């Protein structure tokens, strides 16, 4: 069961950031500008933002394993379409379609987690699910860059489709070996009533705000990182840029160990130290390859630990079902990612790395003011 959850989560997130390290190829094959590269990175996040609130309803009548297999089959075909894409508009549409399918796969995986027999079992499964998000996101940035450099554009994405087909087979094999737990669906409530209830719960609104800002920051930094390394003084190839993203992998250990750190403690005291680590890591990003590697490692650790805090807040939803709260959170989360990719690319093309940092600082300041206002309003 752990292998199934890890495989499903990893294979879903493997599709999320495939173009972030491929700016040299986008410029050579499609004559893409920095701003256009940001739009391509935004497309999948925008699709996820649109679909996430509805994903649980779209997959409600399907068994989780069947929904995951159907979604992965579509993602395999979309990777093959990327291999055959001959224009920027075609690439953008395929990336948008990937974003529409991804929440359905992830929601089905979460449905398996909800069917755990005990809290201890659920905690273990959740650890493997989150580890898959880190592993899949990292491979999403690294593997396409390496494969396209070695096999060419078409060969690289055909090989990515092959890896997804292997993941599809693993899920089929695991689902046949054992009976999978299925959480019984509850009666559906009106969407507008759930939406209103969610926005009246302080913990959820704070999580939505922080989640939006979190992926805004992560998407902005990783999008600009790929663009920055392709230019002077680095002049890195797509494969070399992809290797930098492997520095995110050590965060997996911290994510799996985080439940022990948070045990019987509130989330609030951890936010400021993690945000401090985030900015300290960004300050390390000097014009040297070694400093950028250290910066990526620290930045990834901070952002994924912050993500565990917001996930805990969402899981404690009291006025709406956790599945609905999770879908709504993901919508805000990926909206921030889509906006961050576009604005960061535009700022970087005009003002460089300093402009990107000012953009992120402005987003953090706005989020802090909004969270303080929400907390004061609740107390009043």
- Structural class by helix and strand composition: mainly alpha
Task: Give the overall form.
Answer: globular
User: How many DSSP E strands?
Assistant: 0
Order of helices and strands: HHHHHHHHHHHHH
| Helix fraction bin | over 70%
Main sheet? none
Mean pLDDT: 85
What is the end-to-end distance?
47 Å
Strand content is: under 5%
Rg (CA only) = 20 Å
Q: Which spans of ≥5 residues are poorly predicted at pLDDT below 50?
A: none
Overview of this protein structure:
With 380 residues, this protein is mainly α. It contains 13 helices and no strands. Helix 8 crosses helix 13 (322-379). It is globular and about 50 Å long. It starts with a helix and ends with a helix. The model has no long low-confidence stretch (mean pLDDT 85).
Task: Record keyword descriptors for this entry.
380 residues, mainly alpha, 13 helices, 82% helix, globular
Please give a quick description of this structure.
82% of the residues lie in helices and 0% in strands. The protein is built from 13 helices and no strands.
What's the structural blueprint in terms of helices and strands?
Blueprint: H1 2-13, H2 23-30, H3 34-58, H4 64-84, H5 88-114, H6 119-177, H7 191-199, H8 202-230, H9 238-244, H10 251-262, H11 268-283, H12 289-315, H13 322-379
Helix pairs in contact: 1-5, 1-6, 3-5, 3-13, 4-5, 4-6, 5-6, 6-9, 6-10, 8-12, 8-13, 10-12, 11-12
């Amino acid at each position: 069961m752990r292998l199934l959850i890890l495989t499903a989560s990893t294979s879903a997130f493997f599709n999320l950031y495939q173009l972030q390290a491929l700016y040299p190829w986008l410029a050579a094959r499609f004559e893409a500008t920095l701003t256009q590269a940001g739009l391509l990175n935004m497309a999948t996040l925008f699709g996820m933002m649109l679909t996430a609130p509805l994903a649980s309803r779209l997959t409600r009548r399907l068994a989780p394993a069947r929904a995951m297999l159907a979604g992965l089959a579509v993602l395999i075909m979309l990777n093959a379409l990327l291999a055959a894409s001959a224009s920027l508009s075609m690439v953008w549409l395929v990336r948008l379609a990937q974003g529409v399918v991804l929440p359905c796969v992830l929601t089905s995986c979460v449905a398996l987690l909800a069917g755990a027999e005990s809290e201890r079992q659920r905690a273990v499964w959740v650890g493997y699910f989150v580890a898959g998000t880190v592993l899949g996101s990292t491979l999403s940035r690294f593997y396409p860059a390496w494969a396209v450099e070695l096999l060419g554009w078409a060969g690289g994405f055909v090989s990515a489709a092959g890896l997804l087909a292997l993941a599809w087979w693993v899920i089929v094999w695991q689902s046949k070996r054992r009976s999978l737990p299925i959480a019984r669906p509850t009666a559906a409530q009106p969407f507008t009533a759930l939406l209103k209830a969610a926005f009246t719960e302080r913990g959820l609104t704070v999580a939505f705000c922080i989640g939006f800002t979190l992926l805004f920051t992560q998407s902005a930094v990783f999008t600009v990182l790929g663009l920055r390394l392709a230019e002077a003084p680095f002049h890195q190839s797509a494969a070399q840029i992809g290797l930098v993203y492997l520095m995110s992998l050590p965060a997996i250990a911290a994510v799996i160990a985080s439940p022990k750190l948070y045990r019987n403690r509130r989330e609030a005291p951890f936010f400021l130290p993690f945000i401090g680590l985030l900015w300290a890591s960004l300050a390390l990003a000097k014009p040297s390859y070694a400093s950028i590697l250290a910066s990526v490692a620290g930045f990834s650790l901070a952002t994924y630990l912050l993500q565990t805090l917001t996930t805990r807040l969402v899981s404690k939803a009291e006025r709406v079902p956790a599945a609905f709260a999770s879908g709504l959170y993901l919508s805000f989360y990926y909206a921030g990612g889509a906006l961050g990719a576009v604005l960061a690319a535009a700022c970087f093309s005009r003002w460089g790395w300093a402009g990107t940092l000012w953009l992120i600082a402005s987003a953090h300041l706005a989020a802090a003011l909004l969270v303080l206002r929400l907390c004061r309003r609740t107390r009043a």
